[in-house]
Amino acid sequence: MSNPGYTPETVLITGATGGFGRAFARRFAALGSRLILAGRDLNKLKALAEEFKVPTHLLAFDVRDRAAVESALRDLPPDFAAIDLLVNNAGLALGADPAYRASIDDWEVMVDTNDKALVVMTGLVLPGMVERGRGHIINISSIAGSYPYPGGHVYCASKAFVTQFSLSLRADLTGTGVRVTSIEPGMVETDFSLVRFKGDAAKAAKVYADTTPLTAEDVAESVVWAATLPPHFNINRIELMPTVQGPGGLTVHRTPKAGA
Ligand code: NDP
Ligand code: 8X3
User: Using only C-alpha atoms, what is the Rg of the chain?
Assistant: First the structure.
């Protein structure tokens, strides 16, 4: 993994202010890639960019704001315009209550961020990649897209969409030179649970207590591996979990018989 067969020259990372995004940015900066860092908080983006010697371009927008995303991509400086690698990483889970107690507003935010925004970003970047005959889209999905769990409802469904969208893109992109990869991590310690539980730090900490989750750097390892393989080599999907995590099986509700 320390000897890449290919290095993407220009890399656009969404959610660059978060745990995964920062780890991805650091790894691609170390490889010498030019970075387009997208996030909502310009100060956090600036602080991250200060770490790097490689050229950076910062994009401050909410990924759900299609007009802002379109204008930012249209106005990319010439040096950053030919995006070789798009990492669609911005995303979130909100809530873990059963579906019948969940907030419909939360559901909308998850679909708008994890799916609609990802599709828009992809639709804007893809034609240029096809025109240039090279490029790579790496979508950050989740094991939640394959393994449903109580309280996962819309988050799980939103990530199943990401995985299936990635695989469907492959069907259209054979012969274009453009690669697509779905990265599907399990439990990774970042601010993900703090966001999911809306700032309840004690609840978030419990998710990672007394066990050994993956780190954002572990996920970056898989992203960088897929991105730096020679251009003829496409990784369709990578599912990764901490060793301590595994599938839990199906649940069965039982009602004791009267008098038993
Ligand atoms: P973080 O909460 O640390 O980072 C999430 C990033 O997404 C932040 O930069 C956040 O920005 C950004 N983001 C969220 N909503 C928007 C929006 N509307 N517009 C722009 N940016 C937005 O979590 P992770 O780093 O763990 O998560 C990154 C991705 O990985 C997500 O898609 C998540 O679903 C996925 N994932 C996470 C796993 C985990 O266990 N941690 C496992 C599997 C997948 P801001 O700070 O402004 O909110
Ligand atoms: C995050 C992993 O298992 O909490 O996508 O849904 S999980």
Answer: 19
